[in-house]
Design goal:
2 copies of one chain form a homodimer.
Chain A (H helix, E strand, L loop, with lengths): L8 H12 L6 E5 L12 E2 L9 E2 L3 E4 L13 E8 L14 E5 L11 E4 L3 E3 L3 E4 L9 E2 L10 E3 L7 H9 L4 E5 L2 E8 L3 E2 L10 E2 L2 H11 L2 E9 L3 H14 L2 E5 L4 H14 L2 E6 L3 E2 L5 E5 L4 E6 L3 H19 L8 E5 L3 E2 L5 E11 L2 E6 L8 H5 L2 E5 L5 E2 L4 E6 L1
Parallel strand pairs in A: 5-6, 13-16, 13-17, 14-15, 17-21, 19-24, 22-25
Antiparallel strand pairs in A: 1-12, 2-11, 3-10, 4-6, 4-7, 5-9, 8-9, 18-20, 20-21, 22-28, 23-27, 24-25, 24-26, 26-28
Helix pairs in contact in A: 1-6, 3-6, 4-5
Chain lengths: 408, 408
């Protein structure tokens, strides 16, 4: 890996984008019940007005607003009560000048009426109603289509289904709709030192952290994890594992040891198992330098060799593969939290730095306190609420400087 | 409902807290694989050191640091190579003064050695190794227990399991652990005007929004939804539905119409179905005033009568029942996003105001733009990214004022 060939995050993203433009993005139809947290695959248009009829937004008397002109606390207008609208029923009659009709909140406004005088300002004086306020046209009324107009865009492609989107789709009667099918992702953890988390490590061995951490991160970012395995540092076994994963995946993640020899063997294995193979070898990111990206054209599979250190592996996953899902699914990135950094943080010449931080609320603003730790330390991330990116052209952060914290 | 009996949000929360202190909070053991997004029910302590042995954090030669004193670019120290440590194997030998041993990143440091000289500063000169740098004790080494000490608190009760927590639990070999069992919640939507979202509403009727919106919100906030039904405005039917829900739920949500008569009938039905019944009648919150809270002591069930308007129902749910889950499960609230409000927003005398907003990123800071809309309009919330609370003692917000946006 020579320094000249190292990519910036933007360059690596551009190369990924060029490859994956041929990736087949699929939709599937789901019901509202199963859709929470999924991403809309198509723009959804309203097929009817919502509300479908003029509705009262207060309890009161539906009136013709011009009939109430001049009414006030001292001088009521007297209107003949033409009837009462029952909740959930068609009004069934019209209002003419000089008339009114009782309507409960949510009830249908009879035709002819254009406003509702609130019950608090009305008095039943035996057959006729004294109205003690002048109401403007539209007061107390939600007009048909005021919430959603027939034919209007209700929700755009790329929208995350939250509780309120479930509500809007319910209102529009759209209970089946297309969402994106998650990309299929396989995880390969490599290293002679790894044992499964269930196991008791012999001396010199450690439990595999990356399989479970990357699996959880994949699910959170919208992938489906189709396979996960530990492979020892053996060229033939690694090549075979990559080949098997390519056959069933859109993305294959290989988290390798970070030692020199292992990095080279991941690149070689990708080059043997995939054509054209490696297209990016090294990332100008700290942590995350030993990152390798490859592509298999025949199966249209992206391959990502991530660093073995858990923090570096998760950071690179988030910045490249989390980003990829956002791009492919047209999903806006999440909101970052503006904060001030609590102390000086050194940059790294020629490399962007991803710095984990803890957020502390002080009054109405946040302070971001860096969590320092060797990149093999997973507790760096369990203590962190998010991370701050330091641009590769920046010398570092000065205490008190404004930063944007991306939540982890 | 008289004004004197209306509760502030804090008063309502205090009353809820007093009731639910007898609510049985249960744990269940889950596997790591099923735990993403769950809340730890107990403090988790590490049962062993992580790493379990001193590990190299770079490729290089394990040395006794004092042996390298005085070494530099021009003047190497020569050390005898006592062996090579294989990845994933016990070192199997010790280092004595004048010796060194090759160790790959992640490999076990032989006993005796206290530092690793990076391979870039070493040269193999046939049997002996020339070391061109003086290394301090601990350089290039992750000490046993440096990430997590045996017996130390690994994760505290109330921790949300994110990908990094899955990683830390994997590292510690803790693959089964207790999480909170979600509270059981039932949803009753009341109103003669409601039809199920699958149906075609007859004139005067509308589709039920709240069942699906509140169901999704319940799931997101950590409840399990055990039943959901639409009930017409009939006192006996409503009482029966509440009775059935109480029998199987920890929390029963009744989203009622907002008209005067209906509010009273929800309170009466709660009082007939639950003992002691209603303990809070009206909330000094906009939107959300017609909120009713009750308690059934025998079954230990909380009852919440929410406004019928979807925006108001979701706001009250979030502020009272979302808050309740955080409290019961010892979970810190999520992070709000500091922003500046884009225009003046009126307050409401004597009531807190929940104002939905859109967040716009401008450079490194956010502007919060209010989404105004009648409280029956669900699109107010699909357009919003979050909400701002205006304190009940505040006259309103001035354009440019700092606000905290709670993401929805």
């Amino acid at each position: 890996m020579n320094l000249l060939s190292v990519d910036t995050i933007e360059q690596a993203r551009e190369k990924i984008r060029a490859c994956v433009k041929s990736l087949p993005i699929k939709n599937e139809t789901v019901s509202l019940d199963e859709s929470l947290g999924r991403i809309l695959a198509l723009d959804i248009f309203a097929e009817e007005d919502i509300p479908a009829f003029n509705r009262a937004t207060v309890d009161g008397y539906a009136v013709i607003s011009s009939d109430t002109a001049g009414a006030g606390e001292a001088i009521p207008v007297f209107l003949k009560c033409a009837g009462e609208v029952s909740m959930g029923e068609a009004a069934g009659f019209s209002i003419h000048s000089g008339e009114c009709a009782y309507v409960p909140t949510g009830g249908m406004i009879p035709s002819g009426a254009d406003a509702v005088a609130m019950i608090e300002y009305c008095e039943d004086s035996g057959g006729s109603i004294a109205v003690y306020e002048a109401v403007a046209s539209g007061a107390g009324v939600a007009l048909a289509g005021e919430d959603i107009k027939k034919g209007a865009l209700l929700l755009r492609r790329g929208t995350l289904i939250r509780p309120q989107e479930a509500g809007a789709l319910s209102a529009a009667g759209i209970i089946h709709f297309p969402v994106f099918v998650p990309l299929r992702l396989s995880i390969i953890s490599t290293g002679d030192e790894l044992v499964s988390p269930e196991g008791i490590p012999a001396p010199g061995k450690i439990r595999d952290i990356n399989s479970n951490a990357l699996k959880a991160l994949s699910l959170r970012r919208g992938y489906s994890v189709v396979s996960s395995k530990i492979v020892s540092d053996d060229a033939a076994l690694l090549e075979a594992a990559i080949g098997e994963a390519i056959a069933i995946s859109d993305v294959v993640v290989i988290s390798g040891g970070s030692s020199k020899g292992e990095k080279d063997s991941t690149a070689s294995a990708i080059n043997r198992a995939a054509k054209p193979g490696v297209f990016s070898h090294g990332l100008s990111l700290k942590p995350g330098k030993p990152t390798i990206l490859g592509w298999d054209e025949e199966s249209r599979t992206l391959l990502a060799g991530l660093p073995g250190h858990p923090v570096a592996a998760m950071v690179v996953f988030e910045l490249l593969l989390g980003w990829l899902c956002d791009k492919l699914f047209d999903r806006p990135p999440g909101f970052a939290v503006p904060a001030r950094i609590s102390c000086n943080v050194p940059g790294s010449p020629g490399r962007a730095v991803c710095q984990p931080v803890i957020l502390r609320l002080e009054g109405d603003s946040y302070t971001a306190e860096p969590v320092f730790g060797k990149s093999g330390m997973i507790t760096t991330l369990t203590r962190a609420d998010g991370y701050v990116m330091i641009d590769l052209n920046k010398e570092g952060l000065k205490k008190g400087e404004s930063v944007m914290v991306h939540l982890f």
